[in-house]
Design a protein that fits this description.
The protein has about 350 residues and is of the alpha+beta class. The protein contains eleven helices and eleven strands.
């Protein structure tokens, strides 16, 4: 693969890749790294944590604890992982390894997430046996663990799906540009086309991730046409084609238009008595909806609106759902920065 010029560094600008990786790391409060198929770092580690960089460097014996860990820098050991994989270290921390495929099943890199703590922090007595064997101080370990964030199972599943999709789309876009260039097209002139395809993939990834995270029955992502100040559907799940093709909403009109105009999220039916929203509710069969406006990471103007719906009587969206949705949207908005 690398001999054929199809390693990640031949497909993407690694500085841009690392910049997005850094932004994801900052937003999530988590350590991220990209490694090649031999375990070598392809860019600097984002959000380096003291636990791995200092405390675990002194574990003894290394072979039992950290010697073969995928987190060790430049371990130069072939990575044979083919699918998304969860690893557990002896200190009960979780690590996730995501293969990034440029085309078909051809893996060009791995995104490594973690270490992180799932669900809740453990009592320090849990670590007593390990720290004794490893030859490190339990208080030093506990102090370093403070920097390791806790993730719920729902949130980490959503984060994994979104990161996997976005970084895969970046690699795939780079691959197709490279291949088209090899057969003689002026790929630079086609950049708007690639930007449009890339935007569509990122927005679909965002919608699919949110639909899974919130168990939504249908939804859409709409973006603002800057020339007309109208919203159009760019990604949809379980909506009729005629709705997708015909939706044309002026910013300020309708529920999605109101969310875009005010840059404020709306939960239905909770907010239906605000700002005349009840009169705008046309699809009464929908039991609950949340409408969340968003911007690109480098811009304050509203870029679009995500709409999620449930049809079941026993499910209402909440402010807690809005909080998680905004976190997922913020991650996607980072990936939208390259879109012109």
């Amino acid at each position: 693969m690398h001999q054929n010029g199809l390693g990640l560094k031949n497909l993407v600008n690694l500085e841009d890749w690392h910049s997005i990786q850094d932004s994801f790391s900052d937003s999530l409060g988590i350590t991220l790294r990209t490694i090649d198929l031999k375990g070598r770092l392809l860019s600097s580690i984002s959000g380096q944590n003291r636990l791995c960089s200092k405390v675990f460097q002194h574990t003894q014996p290394q072979s039992e604890f950290c010697g073969n860990c995928v987190l060790r820098p430049n371990i130069h050991k072939e990575v044979k992982i083919k699918e998304d994989t969860s690893l557990k270290c002896p200190f009960d921390l979780d690590i996730f390894v995501l293969p990034i495929k440029a085309f078909g099943n051809r893996i060009v890199a791995y995104i490594v997430i973690g270490p992180l703590i799932l669900n809740k922090r453990k009592d320090k007595s849990i670590y007593a046996e390990c720290v004794t064997k490893a030859g490190i101080d339990v208080e030093e370990l506990i102090d370093a663990l403070i920097d390791i964030n806790v993730f719920s199972y729902t949130k980490i599943r959503s984060v994994i799906k979104l990161l996997k999709n976005i970084f895969s789309y970046m690699a795939q876009t780079g691959y197709h540009k490279k291949r088209l260039g090899e057969i003689g097209y002026e790929v630079i002139e086609m950049d708007p086309l690639f930007s449009s395809i890339y935007e569509e993939k990122v927005l679909n990834a965002l919608l699919n991730t949110c639909a899974i995270a919130f168990d939504a029955d249908s939804g859409s992502v709409m973006t603002v046409d800057k020339n007309t100040n109208h919203l159009h559907i760019k990604a949809a799940s379980k909506l009729d084609e005629d709705i997708i093709n015909s939706t044309d909403i002026r910013v300020g009109e309708g529920i999605a238009g109101l969310a875009a105009a005010t840059a404020k999220s709306i939960i239905l039916p909770k907010d239906m008595n605000k700002n005349g929203i009840f009169k705008k509710m046309k699809r009464q069969y929908i039991k609950s909806s949340m409408i969340v406006p968003f911007s690109k990471a480098n811009d304050h103007d509203v870029y679009g609106v995500i709409n999620l719906n449930v049809l079941r009587k026993n499910r209402d969206f909440s402010d807690k759902d809005i909080t998680l949705a905004k976190e997922l949207i913020n991650l996607a908005s980072i990936a939208l920065v390259p879109v012109k």
